Amino acid sequence: MDLVGACRAFVSVSEYGGFTDGAAAAGMSQSVASRRIAALEERFGAQLFERTSRRPVLTPFGRDMLASAVQLVHAADVLLAEAEAVKHQPWRLAVPATCSAVALARLVAEARGHGVRLDLRPAGPSRRKELLHAHQVRAALLAVPAQEASWSVPLGLAGARDGGARDGGARRIHVETLRLGRASKGPARRIWIQPEDDVPHIRDPLTRLRDAAGLRPGQVLAAPDPVAAAAEVLCSDDLLLCSRAQADELALVWLPIGELTPRRGYALTVAADGDPLPMADRLSEAIARCLSAEDPGGDGEREET
Questions:
Q1: How far, in Å, CA of 215 to CA of 203, rounded?
Q2: What span, in angstroms and rounded, lies between the C-alpha atoms of 261 and 157?
Q3: What's the pTM value of the predicted model, to 2 decimals?
Q4: Which long-range contacts (CB under 8 A, 24 or more apart) does 160-164 make?
Q5: What pLDDT is recorded for position 298?
Q6: Could you tell me if 304 and 255 are in contact, meaning their C-beta atoms sit under 8 angstroms apart?
Q7: Domains with residue ranges and CATH for the chain
Q8: DSSP-derived pairing of the beta strands 118-123 and 191-193
Q9: Which residues pair with 157 in a beta bridge?
Q10: pLDDT in tens, 200-217
């Protein structure tokens, strides 16, 4: 028996003084209201209404039970309202700080088209993890190695001038060309790593390549924030480790690295024991566009001509 529905019929018929008006106010037909009240009386083992008059009159038992029935119906209404409010609460999602404002706005707009309201919190890799563990966000795009990722973003080096060379038909930049020779003039060109890429699976291979190519330790540096890294590159011959989309935004010349292909990897992780699949399924393509992630069916790189 639907106890809440039966109590709702009981309370409404009592309030409106008739089965027709009471049933309509409760959003049910008269026959349904009558059946529910009869089932409630059978469950209680006592009548709630006198059956001797044309209009329903509460029995002494019915008068005693009415207050409790009102409380139950009110509690059910509060519970339903809270459930509806929770369903429409925005998803607080921690996203990479390297995503542009335009990309984030488009993600929010696309999510609404899929029935998901997002409240985005841009942050670096470690901060995104902290926000998730502290339950300050419901989900986060965490930085993971590319082989563990749902989305990956190929990285290359970008600078104010084209310093690449042909490599098998494609234009690439080789880290070894940054090595200073005895006759080299001017300061050494540096590679700047943004906080988003200052993670072991990206930083460590690049550091090993630096050493293998004979670069100085100070030629691969981690910047405190994306703005500082970009500023160093815009006012010098230095290079920025970044995605092609970020290079385009900064009007820099982007080239893949000849010796390795670093990739940002992202996995959607939800707080506690939540299930990421519903949101991931609906927003996978939108998240990929926001991250400028490669096409899963493609090779992730476009050749320069």
A1: 15
A2: 11
A3: 0.69
A4: 160/233, 160/234, 160/236, 160/237, 160/252, 160/253, 161/237, 161/253, 162/253, 162/255, 163/237, 163/239, 163/253, 163/255, 164/253, 164/255, 164/304
A5: 38
A6: yes
A7: 3-87 (1.10.10.10), 91-151+265-291 (3.40.190.10), 156-261 (3.40.190)
A8: unpaired
A9: 241, 255
A10: 999 999 999 999 999 999
